[in-house]
Amino acid sequence: MVQDHVGASPWGFESLQPHSNCVRTVREHVFVTHRRATVKQALRLKEQGVPACQIGSSLGVPRKTVADWLAGRVPLHPRSSPIEHCAACDGPGHSFEGLPASYAYLLGLYLGDGYIARHPRGVYRLRISLDTRYPDLVREAAHTMAVIMPASRVGRVLHGARCIEVCSYSKAWPCLLPQHGPGQKHERSIRLTEWQERIVHGVPGLLLRGLIHSDGCRFVNTGRGGWRAPRYSFVNRSAQILDLFCFACDRLGIRWTTTASPSKGTVYVSRQEDVELLDLYVGPKM
What does CATH list as the number for 22-70? Predict the structure, then answer.
């Protein structure tokens, strides 16, 4: 196994712990921790015309603290407070909103050819199977995995001449990829959580890139009279994963067609202008 570890990244997502979800305020030299969500709720209530004393009473926050927030005295870069505990993975809490855009690419890889396996002591192994003929793709997958889970090393395991597995161990993988579950993906429900939807809505091209890099291809379609044209295809046995592919195409204005068989479904992107647009997001496999 070859070990890769990525530190600094283009997204600046370099911390070894998830970002805090809290801000601190000071009252009579005593530090009191308040969740950012509480601060935001207080500001929303102010916009609705609710007085500070009533806001403090409803949120359980001292009126003086609420008055400071409403006056704009909220730290822009607060000192991190103790990270909350995640009951699901028995580890630190997660800051899903702090995930970089490249998370959408990793999600696409996982939905295509990814798998999460349980190991002893509550540790999980994320495995992405890729083709050894495309070393740049393998490097991009390893880099992205390390950016999303910077405290864990990324390994590569060769299986035969054509298959390489990019993998990482962490207790938190099922939390970051909640589509994990028993059985094959096409035999269980595959639905995005609200925080995943927000990420995918913002960068649908990265989701398509991950899906194509794992379960898709770009090829030259031919016809009678020597007719030739590039075409994309994405194949997956899960109807819900196919729907996600089509949704991402719709977000970018890419037209698609689909065919179905008893065992597999295929989505095609065939029109020249749509292929050229998808090229901007996917690019060649290398």
Answer: 1.10.10
